[in-house]
Write a structure and sequence with these properties.
The complex is a heterodimer of chains A (422) and B (870).
Chain A (H helix, E strand, L loop, with lengths): L16 H26 L4 E5 L14 H4 L10 E5 H4 L4 H9 L3 E5 L7 H4 E7 L2 E8 L2 E6 L4 E5 L20 E8 L4 E10 L2 E2 L5 H15 L12 E4 L3 E2 L2 H9 L6 E8 L7 E9 L22 E6 L4 E3 L7 E4 L2 H6 L7 E14 L2 E12 L10 H12 L4 H24 L1
Parallel strand pairs in A: 3-14, 9-11
Antiparallel strand pairs in A: 1-2, 4-12, 4-13, 5-6, 5-8, 6-7, 8-9, 9-10, 13-14, 15-16, 15-18, 16-17, 18-19
Chain B lengths: L1 H10 L5 H17 L1 H13 L5 H13 L6 H12 L3 H14 L5 H18 L8 H11 L2 H17 L7 H15 L6 H14 L4 H5 L1 H14 L5 H17 L8 H14 L2 H25 L14 H17 L15 H16 L4 H11 L5 H13 L6 H21 L3 H18 L11 H14 L4 H16 L15 H12 L9 H14 L6 H24 L3 H22 L2 H7 L3 H11 L5 H18 L4 H16 L4 H18 L4 H16 L8 H15 L4 H18 L7 H25 L12 H14 L4 H18 L4 H6 L2 H10 L4 H18 L2
The chains are: A alpha+beta (422), B mainly alpha (870).
Chain lengths: 422, 870
């Protein structure tokens, strides 16, 4: 119970310089630990594929023709080299072009209606325009077309999308959006989000990616009208659950852009590079100007044309993995037409048409037209050929889709009833 | 044996060393051979009025030390030892102790009251000795004055020893009644009154309920106030100490009494002896502390949920308080600036004035300015010094708008006074005031700078000149330079007005460190501190000069190490500490940008060699500084640090084993983290040793608890560095983490300190989990972590339910949820979905206002969505 000392610091700072050094060290260590953790969290969360450097195929440098751009097709699968997004974001020039050309997810064409359409799928009206990846990083934003070539380089309100002092977070953290550039209103319509502020969303379900896209994009101001630091407006696309009302809204609802068909995304599917059956495209005359393929003059040919790849043994294959074989050329004909394995060859489908048994191609009546345009990088996919075929013969109509959504609802009711009885 | 005890105890205090040693040996043997009998003999000795005062006193002291120790682990041992003794024996000892309170010997009484309190400190929390308070209280009412005094002292010690929750309210009421009655002026014996006042001081923490009762509080306050008027100076002082304690414990109950208290304190400050006046001033300083805290916490915005409202006592008393305090400033001691331990009424009054300025802000300025103007030019140094001190005191608190014109006006005057005033005392305060001006009114954030390129040269010249003055003035000049440099900290790469003088400033500071009298008045320390700040706040322009400074400081360190071979003393070690500190700042500065780092790296080998030599000294401070500097070096060097590891490792291990100087241990743990991040997987060869040491540290009850949280964080650093190689440590580290997690999950009933500690422990544990999960990510061995996932999730859930995490823990916790999901992926999906954390906790964090929490939560949401989608 000795009287307590009441001396206070006099003409001296409350903490010594040593204490200050100690605290600063602790702060530095805590910061370094946080950086190391964040680094570990971002890094290696996704490894994406990069083609082997030795496969230097000639590639189109300019943007492909509009009509070609609108039609999903694929490129031959190549042996992947693991490369994460962080490294990829540092690529420049041709390397970057090659890498980005592989990164878009491409829908198959809808040739039959998936089960549980109403429950497991989203639907939205696809904006008409150039499909591209938009990458914002280090104070600039770059959009790249599906072949990897640059469409625009511009400042934007996306994270680190413009050189500004007030940006939050590390400047090198990148964001990648899957967009369609709509010429008429000079707007990027965002149809998917692949990376956001350094976080990769490749391994996230579509449901989550759309949620994230909806909640994050608006926060940035990227949806605001263009300004000095924001050259193009970004805009969200209304995405619906694929039930009766959602499907109707996507099909008939008015949107600020020109529609080019409907896109269907499976809610549980990750963002998968290349062609995937978990995203589907469907078109009819009401919602797209480009239902049927056109030739190089923009005319719809009398007979459906297909481009197939000539493989070993004269097999004519689609670009799918595994490929679907449409027929076979004999050696003599190949020699005569100077065709060799690896060539892309154009055919017209004759009166015999395509014969399917149990969904599998049994027979195809193909008439040789010639080698495909040199700009073509790959053959048609099976679903594309089939969709184009069905458009000419027995198209899948909106009523069929609506019907399946209704019957799905009925079915689930039925299942429910049975369980109640049990 | 009992016969011998007296002699042994006397011998143990003998002048003859051999005799003393023998006696100490005997006591030790006795204690080891038969503890119960030993303790009983001591209690008997203490109680026996026939025995000599010296042996009784030592008996009491040994008894006290057998019940309590400073070191936490020893304390716990002693408590357990006492509790396990035979109850009958303990009852006998306690009876002897209580009897001793009535002893005619004043020494025996005062010793036994402390022993009784120690026993109470052990037994009351275990619901033992229930009759103690009752029997003490029965003493208070009847027995002769000396016993009453000893009994009141005992009650006071008990209140100091035990926490309020182990004494029931009925006993508290009775203790307070007895104590306050003892203070009453009807008690004629001054010793009893003094004991009562001091007991009340300790009992105040028990009086929550009584202070909430208007009548009881009025009574206590009336008696305390009356006691401040006692004719006995010790009693008056003790009564003011009670008022000081009440001001912080029961601030919100003071409103009805504040006017009376002001009158009492004003009288004491004016008329009473200094020891009483100091307490009276402290009352107002303490009120300022309370109001500053309240205003800081709530920003002056009082909503219904504010715990304690601000009563603005200082603001209300301002016009009386300020003149009272200004008056004290004129009562300086002649040589107070040379005396490190000085504390007098002028110092206390000036300190209080500074606190008042922080409490009320602008309002103080018009009340102080006339005093300054009146006195600043007077022939009497006391008046000039008081005026200067008053000005310096009010520079923190009032707005820059209010002060800036005054400071601009005063600056030239002060610079002249620092050069020309004949009084060292005035110069000391003037230099300090200049430092305060720079500290609070100079910086890139302020609108109108008081320092311009025009007056910068003059300021620097005067300060450098002043560094040649007597040590106490030179020390303050270094301090002023410190803040002058600090003002340019945020100037960025913009040109600093100090750049042209950089070389001169550094040279002047180095010269100061070489002064013969640099060890006086902390001068050398102040010079190095200023040098450190000048380096910290340097910019691109001056970076080359900082690079040149490095070899100079290295040479200094080299020289002290060479001198040490000849003679080693405290000062040599202190200097090594300062030099290591300075090198740490240089390393951190030069390491922070690529071009300077490149230039600095030429010295890395030499500098590391010097640091390693510092470890040869015995000084904990020097070790600590060298370790901190090595951490900075590891960070700057990166993977190349590997080449130092063979030599450095043994010191790293030594640091981790240093339980005694736990600061060294804590800093070494931090440096392990730095080295992990620098070396990454190259740390692997050293991990067996490091992990062994860290695990030992954790299981030790000797190591200060504050080191344990950083050790857990360090597990995370190691795991992140070596990835799946952490596998072999899982078996040891995980159970430790689990049991620590269980202990730290609940804080219920703990005080603020304990809650804060628990949160730091939680953070350490969570950082460990985070590092381990991230370290294993992508490895084929991730499934090894699966068995631990349920526990980690449970821990997160219980933390969430407990609702007492701070923001840092919240951020780390939600991050761990993400890390777990990220690494274990879909195999942990169902577990994650079952946890509350993945739903409510995550949802709360996602909508947090705290940017870092939100960011971590978004990461967690993302990782979880990956884990639970197929």
């Amino acid at each position: 119970m000795a009287p307590h000392d009441l001396r206070r610091p006099f003409k001296r700072p409350l903490i010594s310089d040593q204490e200050k050094r100690r605290q600063q060290s602790l702060l530095r260590q805590a910061q370094n630990r946080r950086d190391a953790q964040n680094h570990a969290r971002f890094l290696a969360s996704t490894a994406l594929s990069l083609e082997q450097p030795h496969e230097l195929e000639p590639e189109p440098v300019s943007a492909p023709e509009l009509h070609d751009e609108l039609i999903p097709d694929s490129e031959a699968p190549e042996s992947p080299k693991e490369l994460d997004v962080v490294e990829a974001s540092k690529l420049k020039g041709a390397e970057a072009r090659k890498w980005f050309a592989k990164q878009l997810m491409h829908p198959e064409w809808m040739i039959d209606i998936p089960e549980n359409l109403s429950q497991d799928w989203f639907v939205f009206a696809r904006p008409s325009g150039k499909r591209c990846f938009v990458v914002s990083c280090n104070g600039t934003t770059i959009s790249r077309l599906r072949n990897g070539s640059i469409l625009h380089r511009f400042p934007s309100e996306l994270p680190n999308g413009a050189r500004r002092k007030d940006s939050s977070g590390p400047a090198q953290s990148y964001s990648i959006l899957d967009c369609i550039f709509h010429e008429v209103d000079q707007t990027y319509y965002v149809i998917d989000m692949v990376c956001w502020r350094g976080y990769s969303l490749y391994d996230c379900a579509a449901e989550f990616r759309f949620f994230w896209l909806n909640s994050k994009l608006a926060e940035t101001g990227a949806c605001e009208p263009p300004s000095h630091y924001h050259k193009y407006r970004f805009s969200l696309v209304p995405v619906y659950c694929c039930d009766q009302s959602g499907l109707c809204a996507a099909y008939t609802g008015s949107v600020p852009y020109v529609k080019d068909g409907l896109l269907f995304y499976n809610k549980h599917a990750h963002y998968q590079t290349g062609i995937t059956p978990l995203a589907l495209v469907w078109k009819d005359e009401n919602c797209s100007q480009y239902v049927m393929d056109t030739d190089s003059k923009g005319q719809v040919p009398n007979h459906q044309q297909v481009v197939l790849e000539l493989q070993e043994g004269g097999k004519l294959c689609t670009s799918d993995d595994p490929p679907v074989v449409f027929g076979c050329l004999d050696g003599g004909f190949m020699h005569e037409s100077e065709l060799h394995s690896g060539c892309l060859v154009r055919f017209a489908i004759g009166e015999g048409g395509l014969v399917l048994v149990d969904g599998k191609l049994e027979k195809a009546d193909l008439n040789y037209l010639g080698k495909a345009n040199r700009a073509r990088a790959s053959a048609d996919s099976f679903s594309k050929v089939m969709f184009q075929y069905s458009v000419r013969h027995s198209p899948l109509r909106i009523d069929d889709l609506l019907g399946s959504v209704n019957s799905a609802a009925d079915e689930s009711n039925k299942v429910c009833d049975i369980e109640m009885d049990g | 044996m009992a016969m011998e005890v007296t002699q042994i105890l006397l011998n143990a205090q003998a002048v003859d060393g051999a005799l003393r040693k023998q006696a100490e040996e005997n006591l030790k043997q006795f204690q080891e051979q038969n503890l119960p009998s030993f303790l009983y003999s001591l209690a008997g000795e203490l109680a026996n009025d026939e025995k000599p005062a010296e042996s009784r006193k030592l008996a009491g002291l040994i008894l006290k030390n057998a019940l309590d120790a400073k070191e936490q682990h020893r304390k716990i041992e002693l408590v357990q030892r006492w509790l396990s003794l035979d109850p009958t024996l303990k009852a006998q000892i306690k009876a002897l102790l209580l009897r001793t309170l009535s002893s005619p010997s004043v020494d025996a009484r005062s010793t036994v009251s402390q022993v009784i309190a120690k026993v109470a400190g052990i037994e009351l929390p275990h619901k033992q000795w229930p009759e103690l308070i009752g029997s003490l209280l029965s003493n208070v009412h009847q027995l002769p004055a000396p016993t009453r005094q000893a009994t009141l002292e005992t009650l006071g010690y008990i209140c100091e020893e035990v926490s309020p929750d182990v004494v029931d309210q009925d006993h508290v009421n009775k203790i307070l009644t007895a104590v306050v009655q003892g203070m009453n002026s009807t008690e004629e014996n001054n010793d009893v009154r003094l004991a009562a006042v001091r007991a009340l001081y300790n009992a105040l923490g028990f009086a929550q309920a009584n202070f909430s009762n208007d009548m009881e509080r009025d009574y206590i306050m009336r008696i305390v106030c009356e006691t401040t008027l006692s004719p006995d100076v010790k009693i008056r002082r003790a009564a003011f100490e009670c008022l000081v304690a009440i001001s912080s414990t029961y601030y919100e109950k003071l409103a009805p009494y504040i006017q009376d208290i002001f009158n009492i304190t004003a009288k004491a400050v004016k008329e009473d002896e200094e020891q009483v006046a100091l307490q009276a001033i402290e009352f107002w300083s303490s009120i300022c502390d309370e109001e500053i805290d309240i205003l800081e916490e709530y920003g002056g915005d009082f909503s219904a949920d504010s715990d304690i409202p601000c009563f603005y006592f200082i603001k209300q008393a301002l016009s009386f308080l300020v003149p009272m305090l200004l008056e004290t400033l004129l009562k300086q001691d002649e040589d107070q600036d040379q005396d490190e331990g000085a504390w007098n009424i002028a110092m206390a009054g000036g300190t209080c004035l500074g606190l008042v300025a922080r409490t009320v802000g602008d309002d103080i300025v018009p009340l102080v300015m006339p005093f300054i103007q009146e006195n600043i030019s007077k022939p009497d140094w006391r008046q000039r010094e008081a005026a200067t001190y008053a000005f310096g005191s009010i520079l923190e608190g009032p707005s820059p708008e209010k002060l800036e014109p005054l400071v601009t006006m005063a600056l030239n005057f002060m610079l002249t006074a620092l050069m020309k005033d004949p009084s060292n005392h005035v110069k000391d305060t003037t230099a300090w005031t200049l430092g305060r001006m720079f500290e609070f009114l100079h910086g890139t954030a302020l609108d109108t700078p008081i320092i311009t390129p025009a007056n910068c040269q003059q300021i620097v010249t005067v300060l450098i000149q002043s560094m040649k003055d007597v040590p106490n003035v030179a020390e303050k000049a270094c301090g002023a330079l410190y803040f002058l440099a600090q003002g340019y900290e945020d100037a960025g790469s913009a040109s600093s007005p100090l750049t042209p003088y950089f070389q001169d400033i550094v040279q002047a500071l180095l010269t100061v460190t070489h002064r013969e009298d640099a060890v006086e008045s902390r001068l050398r320390t102040a010079a190095y501190e200023a040098l450190n700040e000048v380096v910290r706040c340097s910019n691109d322009e001056t970076a080359p000069m900082v690079v040149q400074l490095a070899p100079l400081i290295m040479l200094e360190l080299h020289n002290t190490l060479e001198n040490q071979k000849v003679s080693s003393d405290e000062r040599q070690n202190e200097l090594q500490g300062l030099l290591c500190g300075c090198l740490q700042v240089i390393i951190q500065k030069l390491g922070s940008s690529e071009p300077t780092k490149y230039h600095f790296m030429q010295y890395a080998d030499q500098i590391m060699a010097l640091f390693l030599r510092v470890f040869a000294s015995r000084s904990a401070t020097a070790h600590e500084e060298a370790m901190l500097a090595i951490g900075a070096l590891a960070y700057a060097t990166g993977p190349d640090f590997a080449k130092y590891m063979t030599e450095f490792y043994k010191y790293l291990e030594m640091g981790l084993q240093n339980f005694e100087d736990y600061q060294v241990c804590a800093i070494t743990v931090g440096v392990v983290g730095d080295v992990c991040r620098a070396l990454e997987e190259k740390i692997l060869p050293y991990c067996d040793g490091i992990m062994t040491q860290l695990l030992k540290d954790l299981s030790s009850n000797q190591l200060h608890r504050s080191v344990k949280p950083p050790i857990f964080s360090c597990f995370g650093d190691i795991a992140l560095a070596i990835g799946e190689n952490f596998e072999k440590y899982l078996l040891y580290a995980m159970p430790m983490l689990q049991s620590a997690a269980e202990l730290s999950a609940h804080t219920s009933g703990a005080d603020d300190d304990m809650t804060e500690y628990t949160n730091s422990l939680r953070n350490g544990i969570l950082e460990a989990y985070s590092g381990i999960f991230q370290g294993f990510k992508g490895s084929p061995k991730t499934q090894l972590l699966m068995p631990y996932a349920p526990h980690v999730l449970q821990f997160l859930d219980s933390l969430y339910m407990e609702k007492d995490m701070d923001d840092v823990v919240t951020k780390t916790a939600i991050g761990v949820l993400g890390d777990l999901a990220d690494t274990l992926g879909s195999s942990a999906g169902p577990l994650i979905q079952q946890s509350v954390s993945s739903k409510d906790f995550l949802k709360e964090c996602l909508s947090s206002d705290d940017h870092l929490i939100k960011e971590s939560a978004e990461w967690a949401k993302l990782a979880i969505s990956r884990a639970i989608s197929f």
